[in-house]
Please model this.
Amino acid sequence: MARWSRQSRALTVAMALLYALGLLNGCGRETPATPVLHWYVFDEPSGAFAEAARRCGETSGGAYQVVLEPLPADADQQREQLVRRLAAGDKDLDILGMDVIWTAEFAQAGWILPWPESAAASAKRGRLGSAVESATYRGRLWAAPFTTNIQLLWYRTDRVSSPPRTWEAMIGLAESLGEQGTIQAQGERYEGLTVFFVSLLASAGGSVLDAEGSAVALEEGPTRETLRILRRLADSPASDPGLAGAREDQARLAFESGGSSFMLNYTYVWPSARANAPAVAAHMGWARWPAVRPDRPSRVTIGGINLGVAAFSPHPDLALQAAGCIASVPGQRLAAARGGLPPTTEALYDDPQVRETFPFADLLRATLRDAVQRPKTPLYSDVSLAISRTLHPLDAIDPERDTARLRRKIERALRSEGLL
Amino acid sequence: MRREPDPSEERLGWLLCTPAVLAMLLVTAYPLLYALWLSLFRYDLRFPDERAFVGLANYVHVLTSGVWWESLLNTLVITLGSVALELVLGMSLALVMHRVLFLRRTVRTSVLVPYAMITVVAALAWKFAFDPVTGFVNPWLGVERAWLTETWSAFLVIILTEVWKTTPFMALLLLAGLTQVPQDLLDAARVDGATAVQRFFRVTLPLMKTTLMVALLFRTLDAFRIFDTVFVQTRGAQGTETVSMVGYHALVTRLNLGLGSAVSVLIFVCVILIALLFVKGLGTRIRRSEEV
Model:
C-alpha cells in the first residue's frame, strides 16, 4: 500500500511537471516577441557565423532574431540533411547556408525563393563576378554570395626557387626533388576529385556541360589532355602513395609533416600550418594553381557559401533581410578575420585586416576572377558522382577509353537514369 | 493436469494480441508495400512535377546495370567471408565459454564487449588501426601499405571488422545450443571409446543443428545488409560498394525515390531468398535426421 501511494505521488508530480512545461511552451508560442529565424549552416568552429547572426538581429531593431542551426562539416552530409527537410516542406528552415553547387538543384525543385530585383541588386553590388555567378540560375539570383573559397598552389620555398607554372613543369620538378618532392592533391572518390577534374579541364580550355547546362560538352582535345595529366600524376613517383584515399585534410596533414614540396589546397592550410607546423609554415610559399598550357592561365573551381531563403519559411521577407545583412560587408569581415573564410566583396581584399588574414589576398582575388563554376544543373550531384566514379582510382585512367566512358556516364546522369 | 481450452479465453488471447499485430502491420507491412508502390514510378524529389507511372522500368534499369551486379557480388563476398570466419571463431569461443571453470561470468562478459560497441565506432577504430600514418598494424607487420586503398586489402579490413564485432553474437547463440546437448549422451559416447574430436563432430554438432541454422541465418541476413562499416571505411570506393550503399545513393544522395525503392525491394527479395534457402535446405535435412 505504501509503495503504491509513493508511486502514484511520483506520477502526480511528473504529470504536474509535464503540464507546467506545456503551459510554458504554450505561453512562448502565444506571444511571439520577435520572430526567430533559423539559419541552417555548417558548424563554423570559430563562432564567426553566430556573432554575425547576433549582430544582425540586434541592428534589426527587434524585427527578427537569428538562431544558428549547425549542420555537419561535410558538404554531402549538409545537403543530405537539408534536402530531406526541404523535400518534406519543413517550415522550420528560414535561411540556408548553401554550398555553391546546390543553387540549380534547390532553385529547380522550388525549395528556395528567387531574390526580388532590389534585394538582388544590393546583394550583387561590389561582389566578385564568379561568386555572383555561383548564386545565379536561369538569369535570376537565388542567394546572396557570402563567403568564397578556391585552391592555390602551396610549395616549399626552401626547396623550390620559383613556383612551377604548369602541371608538366611541376611534376618534372617534383620528380627531380626525389623523396621530398611529393605533390599533395585530392584523389579519393568524392566531390574533391570532381573539383580537381573540373579545374584541370577548364585550364585545358574545356567544360563539362554546354552553356545551357543541358547537354554534355567534354571537348575531345581538352578532356583527353586532362585525363592524361591525372594519369601522369598518379603514375609519377612524385604522387603520394595514399593519393587514392586523399582528401583536403590528408593532403594538409602530409604537407605539415614536412615530407612534401607541393600541395593543391584551400586557404585554410595557411593558418593551420602556422599553428601546427611553424617550421613548415616558415618555408611555405603560394602561387597560382598550375596551368595546363603555358599560354593559358589556370582556371580553378570556385567554392563557398551563399545564403538562400527557404521557400517554406513563415517569414520570407525577414529571412531575405537577415540573409542580406549577414552576407553584407561586416558579416564577411567577421567570417574572414575569425573563420578564415575569403570574402565575396572585391574591395575587402584591400582591407588591411583581411590582408593580414590572407597575406596572399591579391593572388586569391586574381584566381577568383578567373574561377570556373562546376556544372550548373539540378542534377549536379548525379553528374559529380558520374565523374568521380569514372575517374577513380586515378592510376587506372586510360585517356582514350575514359574520354568516351565519361561522356556516356554523364549523359546518363543528365537523364537521371539508372544506377551510378 | 491440462485444462480444456476455453473458447472465450482464446478469443481474449487473440484480442490481446491485436494491438501488437496492428503495430507490426503498420511498421513493417505498410512501408514495404509503399516501397513496392513507389518502385513503379519515375519519382525524383528534385523534379516533383515529373512523377509518372513507369511500370517495371526501374527494375529493368537496376537489373541491367553493372553497378547492381558488382555490388551484389561484393556483398556476397563480405557476407560469406565474415559469416564463415565468425562460425569457426564463434564456435571456439562458445566451447571455451562452455568449458571454462573459473571466472565464468568475467569471461562471458568480456567476450561480449565488441558486440556492445557501436558499429560506426568499431569501423573507425579499425580504419585508424590500418591507417598508414596513425595505425599500428603496419609497424606490427613491418609493411608499408595503404590497406583501404586497394580492393582486396580493403575487403580484408572490412571483413575483419565485421568478424571482430559480431563473433560474440554468434558465440552467444552457439553457447545456448551447447548447453542443450545432454551430458549423458557425451558420457555414453566417451564410454563407447569416442575421441574428443569424434564426440564433437558426431554428437555435439548434429544435436546443435537447429541452433546452428538459426545462428547462421541471423548472421547471414545481418551481414547481407552491411552498410555502416563500408560507409565509414571506404565509402564504397575500391570496388567495395554493397547493395545497401547503392540503395542509399539512389534514395538519399540522388533523391530518386523510384529507383531507390526498386533497389530496396530487390534487396528484400534477396533476403527472402537467403531465408528460404536456409529454411528449405537445412530445415528438411534436420527433419530427415530427426525421423531417422
User: Anything to note?
Assistant: Strands of chain B lie at 41-42, 52-53. The first strand of chain B starts at residue 41 and ends at 42.
